Amino acid sequence: SQGVRRRANQRTISESGVNIGDPLSMKRQLQISSSNLEEFETKFQNDIQEISQNVHNSIEKSIDDLIKKRDALGKQLNKILTDKLEIHENWRAQSEDLIEKLDDEKDTSENHIDQKNTHVNSFYGLINKIDKICNETVSFDPASLSINWYCEKKKSLEPNKVTRKALLNTLPALSTEFYKLATLEEVRKLKWQNCLQPRCVALCPWTGQIWVCSSGSREIAIFDSDDTFVHSFTNSAFLFPCSIAFKIETKEAFVLDKRQSSIFVISPSYQVTRSIGKGGKKSGCLNSPAAILLDNKGRLVVSDHGNDRIQVLETDGTFVAYIGLHHQEGGKGYLQDLSSPGGIALSVDGRAVAVADTGNNRIRIYSANSGRSLQCFGMRGRANGQLEKPIDLSWDTQGHLLVLDEGRVQVFTEKGDFLRAQKVTEHLNGMSAIGQCVLLSDTYSVNKMIWKIK
After folding, report:
1. Rounded CA separation 424/15 (Å)
2. pLDDT at 334
3. Choosing a second label site near 208 at 20 to 30 A (CA), which of 160, 216, 308, 335?
4. C-alpha span between 403 and 357 (Å, rounded)
């Protein structure tokens, strides 16, 4: 049949070429297959043994690696603990040191105030540090077999408004630390109908009123202590009034006129009673003077801008001395310190005269008694502490020096150390400091500013 023919035509089940249906051939094939099975079985067993050994070796190696990893992680944990405990001990030591310093606080001087604020800063530093210390955590990642030591982020402690205000209350106004925190804020503008190019603001010592030299309108304006405009006065002799000084004994005002190169003496009734000086280069003569003040001996000190010098005069115009000029050896002329000096200011104790050495881009401080040079600082530039044509300056009540140069007011110590720079309007005409206020002379008004900590 067809099925029989199909079985007869089925050639082999192996490469031996056995014929299905032939008993001898099938027997021989079975014997060969049995032998092959034994050979395969032996080879398979050998393979299993070899793989088993490889598994054993691999696991042993992994165990060795894991043991090494375990030991390394153990060392890492021990180091983390040691470092952490050392950090804790350092914090405790710093905290105990600050506690001792706080216990010793009794002095109320300005130096102590500076130290107290250092303690406040140290306190905030310690509090921020302990917050960080107590937010550190250690974790283990079994997948990567790694240890992580990190700090959860937390907002640093900073003085809030109440704390900042309390800190401010411990700072004397115009102290060194005060200036580092304060900024100038405008209070109001002092102006009147004819106000043009005001240049000098001065406090009248016997009335408490503010006098303003208005160079452009050739007049003097007077404001009350509450900044209310009172009145103004002028004189036909005024061409360019630019600076004022007061003599309390006679209640006279001395108005410096830049174009007249002279000083007009004003009576309590605002009348010009006489003039001092005239144009020229000789002693007692002036050339485009810029500023005037009265020293503690009742003498006039004048910034003689066009003659590159400072002159000291009696109130009757008698020449007393030069400041910023030195005799050359052999008596042949003078050596000049100054170039186009601008504003001048007398220190609170009356011992020093500060000069804005405009042409040399620096500040010079001289003895008010001897004229001897005490200090010189500054160089041209716009960086903090550098000067760009300083035109005016003023001492504050704590012995700091405020300097007006191009577009800013800078604050220095009496030794010339820079404290602060405050941007202001550019091309101002002058500056005066009265108490905590700074009065900046602009084109059409005097801008009254005050130092404040926000």
Report:
1. 106
2. 81
3. 216
4. 11
**Coil, helix or strand at residue 172:** coil
Stated as kind and residue range, the H or E segment containing 446 is strand 446-452
Sequence-distant (6+) residues with CB within 8 A of 390 are 342, 343, 356, 357, 358, 361, 362, 363, 378, 403, 404, 405
**Residue 131: other Cβ atoms inside 10 A:** 14
Alpha-carbon distance of 52 to 47, in angstroms, equals: 8
- Cα atoms found within 13 Å of the Cα of residue 222, Cβ hemisphere only: 14
Find the DSSP H helices in 155-231.
161-169, 176-181
Q: For the chain, what's the residue count? A: 454
Name the nearest CA neighbour of 392 among 421, 349, 424, 354: 354
The closest alpha carbon to 309, from 276, 334, 332, 330, belongs to 334
State both tokens at 97: 């040191």
Q: What would the two tokens of residue 129 be? A: 């540090």
Neighbours of 183 (CB within 10 A): 14
In whole angstroms, what is the distance from residue 402 CA to residue 430 CA? 12
What number is the average pLDDT over the span 203-208?
95
Give the CA dihedral 125, 127, 129, 130, nearest 10 degrees: 160
Q: Determine how many CB atoms are found less than 10 A away from the CB of residue 128.
A: 15
Amino acid at 14: S
Q: What is the dihedral of CA 221, 300, 438, 109, to 10 degrees?
A: -140
Residue listed under structure tokens 């350092």: 90
| 8 A C-beta contact, residue 20 and residue 26 | yes
| Dihedral in degrees, nearest 10, Cα atoms 113, 116, 118, 124 | -140
Type of residue found at 227:
D
Flag whether the pTM goes above 0.70: no
pLDDT tens per residue, range 351-399: 999 999 999 999 999 999 999 999 999 999 999 999 999 999 999 999 9
| 425 confidence band (pLDDT: 50, 70, 90) | very high
List beta partners, residue 200: 213
Q: Residue 47: what residue type?
A: D
Measured in whole angstroms, how far is the alpha carbon of residue 247 from the centre of its chain? 40
Closest to 101 (Cα-Cα) out of 81, 122, 83: 122
Quote the CA–CA distance of 377 and 392 in Å, as a whole number. Answer: 15
Joined together, the tokens standing for residue 159 give 């003085």
Looking at the predicted structure, is the pLDDT value of residue 13 above 70? no
Residues 221, 192 contacting (CB under 8 angstroms): yes
